[in-house]
Amino acid sequence: QVQLVESGGGLVQAGGSLRLSCALSGITVGFNVIGWYRQAPGQQREFVASISSGGSTRYADSVKGRFTISRDHAKNTVFLQMNSLNSSDTAVYYCRSMTRGTWGQGTQVTVSS
Predict the structure, then answer these.
(1) What is the phi-psi region of residue 75: left when phi exceeds 0, alpha when psi lies from -120 to 50, beta otherwise?
(2) Per-residue pLDDT averaged across 54-73, rounded?
(3) Residue 15: which residues within 8 A CB-CB, separation 6 or more?
(4) What is the mean pLDDT of the chain?
(5) 21, 4 Cβ separation under 8 angstroms
(6) What is residue 25's three-state secondary structure?
(7) 10-24 pLDDT tens trace
(8) Per-residue model confidence as pLDDT tens digits over 86-109
(9) What is the pLDDT, as a whole number, of residue 12?
(10) Confidence of residue 59 (pLDDT cuts 50, 70, 90)
(11) For residue 10, what are the contacts with CB-CB under 8 A and spacing of at least 6?
C-alpha cells in the first residue's frame, strides 16, 4: 500500500523557517517524482516544488530562493525546507507521488505577521 505522511507543520512568525517531511511507504523515493503542493483557504491547490527520480528539482516562482526540496534515500523521506516565510505561505501543505498520483493527508503551516 502506497502511503505518504507529512509532518513538520506548525505556527511560525513571519521571517521564520520550518522544515516539512514527507515519509514514503510502499514506494521508493529514488524511483518516484515527489512534489509538494499547498492549498490556502478559499484557493486552489498549487504546485510548490518537486524532485525527480534523478534528483532534478523544480520550484514555483513564488518560493524560488526561499524553499529547498531534498530527499534522504536511507529514510525514504522528502523534505521541504522553508525559509523567510511570510503570510502568503500560510496553507495546508501536501506531498504527492507524481508518479503514482497518491497524496498525503497534509500538514498545516501558519505564518503570523
Answers:
(1) alpha
(2) 97
(3) 84, 85, 86
(4) 97
(5) no
(6) strand
(7) 999 999 999 999 999
(8) 999 999 999 999 999 999 999 999
(9) 98
(10) very high
(11) 18, 108, 109, 110
Handedness of CA 84, 94, 50, 2 (dihedral sign): positive
Single-letter amino acid code for the residue at 78: V
User: Which residue reads 497524496 in cell numbers?
Assistant: 103
User: Letter for the amino acid at 112?
Assistant: S
Residue type, 19: R
| Beta pairing class for 46-51 and 3-7 | unpaired
CA atoms 95, 75, 1, 54: torsion sign: positive
Percent above pLDDT 90 for the chain: 97
Look up residue 42 and give its three cell numbers. 478559499
Pairwise CA distance, residues 41 & 7, whole Å: 19
What are the backbone dihedrals phi and psi of residue 87, each rounded to the nearest 5 degrees, phi first?
Answer: -60, -25
* Contact status, residue 20 vs residue 79, Cβ threshold 8 Å: yes
Radius of gyration from C-alpha coordinates of the chain: 13
